[in-house]
């Protein structure tokens, strides 16, 4: 499911997001799109690790984050991408 829609999407992990020094929030992820090009979904490792207590929570937060970004990319609600989210 979704293999065709996500064929031109790269999924990456980076340590920290580029944010201004006085940013009020730090994102868990970023979606980059280029007209006619590949899209990129980047998950930021350190903000996710700081927010979670153990590997189960980390896995759940990464899953929810990726589902949300895929939904944004496809113009859908997250529940349409993963009904169990």
From TrEMBL:
Q: What is this protein called?
A: Zinicin-like metallopeptidase
Q: Which organism is it from?
A: Nocardiopsis kunsanensis
List the top taxonomic levels of the source.
Bacteria, Bacillati, Actinomycetota, Actinomycetes, Streptosporangiales
């Amino acid at each position: 499911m979704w293999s065709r829609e996500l064929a031109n999407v790269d999924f990456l992990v980076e340590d920290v997001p580029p944010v201004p020094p006085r940013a009020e929030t730090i994102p868990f992820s970023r979606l980059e799109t280029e007209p006619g090009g590949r899209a990129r979904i980047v998950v930021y490792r350190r903000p996710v690790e700081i927010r979670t207590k153990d590997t189960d929570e980390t896995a759940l937060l990464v899953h929810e984050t990726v589902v949300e970004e895929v939904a944004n990319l496809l113009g859908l609600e997250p529940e349409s991408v993963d009904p169990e989210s």
